[in-house]
Design a protein that fits this description.
Elements: H1 2-21, H2 44-51, E1 66-69, H3 73-83, E2 89-92, E3 104-107, E4 110-113, H4 127-135, E5 142-144, E6 150-154, E7 161-165, H5 171-179, H6 184-198, H7 202-209, H8 212-220, H9 223-227, H10 229-232, H11 238-245, H12 249-256, H13 271-280, E8 286-288, H14 293-305, E9 309-311, E10 316-321, E11 327-334, E12 337-342, E13 346-348, H15 352-358, H16 362-365, H17 368-376, E14 382-391, H18 394-397, E15 403-407, H19 412-421, H20 424-427, E16 433-437, H21 439-442, H22 446-449, E17 453-462, H23 480-500, E18 508-514, H24 516-522, H25 542-547, E19 557-559, H26 568-584, H27 588-608
Parallel strand pairs: 1-2, 1-13, 2-9, 6-15, 13-19
Antiparallel strand pairs: 3-4, 5-8, 6-7, 10-11, 11-12, 14-17, 14-18, 15-16, 16-17
Helix pairs in contact: 3-14, 3-26, 4-27, 6-13, 7-8
Amino acid sequence: MWLAVVIIFLAVLAIVFKTVWGTSGPNPFDIDTREALKPIVLDRKVKNKVLKQGFLASKIPQDLDAIVVGSGIGGLAIAVLLAKVGKRVLVLEQHDRAGGCCHTFTEQGFEFDVGIHYIGELLDHKPFRCMIDQLTNGQLQWELLENPFDHVVLGPPENRRKYPIYSGRKRFPEELKKCFPGEEKAIDEYMRLVKNVGNNGWFMILLKLLPTPFANFLVYTGLANRLSSFFRYASRSLTDVVNELTQNKDLRAVLCYNFGTYGKMPKEASFSMHSLIVCHYLNGAWYPKGGASEIAYHMIPIIEKAGGAVLVRAPVNRILLNDTKEAIGVSVMKGQEEVHVHAPMVISDAGIFNTYQKLLPKDVQAMPAIQKQLSMVQNGDGGLSIFIGLDGTKEELDLKADNYWIFLENNLDDLVEGYMKGKREESAKNIPLLFVASPSAKDPTWQERKSGKSTITVVSFANYAWFEEWKDDKVKNRSADYKELKDTFISSIVEVVTQIFPKIQDRIEFVDAGTPITNQHYIGAPKGEIYGADHGLSRFSVELNATIRPQTPIKNLFLTGQDVFLCGFAGALAGALTCGSVLLNRYLHLDAIALAKKVKNVNSNKKKQ
């Protein structure tokens, strides 16, 4: 019975895909647009002419096809996709530079990234690499990290255990088995599950692109769960799955270690989400040569070439609607005045909460369809970052192109839960999770730009409520109490970091922290979150994934970026491709795969000649 239903459904599905995504709209991946590689621009003033183009009414292009709110990777990517098929797009950014979490900033001569720490799936023949190459015309270069690329450090100083994490589909489990003899069966089963579940993540895209009636059919008949291991495991926590595999507490922690890449402790994290992350890094980890700002720097000219623009210091305060509640443009605050900008479509990379709760009028927010979507999501946890500037080269300071995940012990759930629910002054002294990396050591151009200097970036989480009382203070002039709390976090974190990297002890020239309210100010995060809407178990329900899609209940208003799909660089790009698939009426994910195959074949033929 069920087999017959599945066969009939798949047959209908094939017809739908052929009809909807056959040869409909223009294809931004139709041809390989990579150009001959140009020298990396190291002059910050030259780059700023591209990244810091301030908003003026006179700079607004005429006859716009679309307006994008926010210049994060999800906003820039959809703008480039549209530009590649001849659309004129205006991207508006409230910060003073483009890039969102891909931007960099400089303090006392040190350059820091804020959100790009390492990216996976960048082998030349991979569709993800091909997609990025097309979005930057092949100008964005990548540097492979060390192997091991991650290190998991468990325990207090007197009993620290260090476990290296290697890339390589075979080497990753083989090296784990060396660290945990007798646990071979558990590690093999973990790998089997991770690959099986992670490789079925495409079903999320399917639910968002199918016509709503068909998507709902998949949801309410239970077929989505039956057809996809991704959704079968979506409601199972990482803790539950891993704890069934092994009793070894250190191994459990190591198998869960990178939950920080999406911001949920293992007992609240979906095993499906975790599987995607593990699969993403199996072939290695990379960092952009020249720093994270290279990403936006090479995307903006493509938008401009098509007649569009990317303008900063352009805070959008509302989406303009006509009498029939259709989006017709946006209002930008220029000083105390509003500047209205019109276009036939508005695409928001500002996140689902900002888009619905801040940019739409109250009566529109109250629409049942909007309230339904908002009821399905919640804000993620606030992000905490520490930026350390050092006197010395990576060789002098023993810094490498790798990352450290440091935990106070192996009981990860208890550690994180106690920290996030604790009193802020006490939690500030005992931060259980730290991600530590050296951007300067990863970037081969660093010494050309910042000779004799190095940087370390530390990332963790913090409760937004701990800082909320100071959210309305001036950013560079917050109260003494705020600074005291921030200094407590800094001191406890620096103490741990210097234990791991003892050679930096007397070489620190600069240190500062970015708290949840820092994120709120600079990247427009409603609750200081760095991963958008919360990535807990409910985020991966089939109903949510069928309901929250690029189309919104407001005609001509669309969503792009991480809240459409998943967090992080890759997740936000997938959100942009999903949005582009809707706008251009074709399945861009398949188009990117087809171009990657074509490029791979061309390269193979060249090698044979």
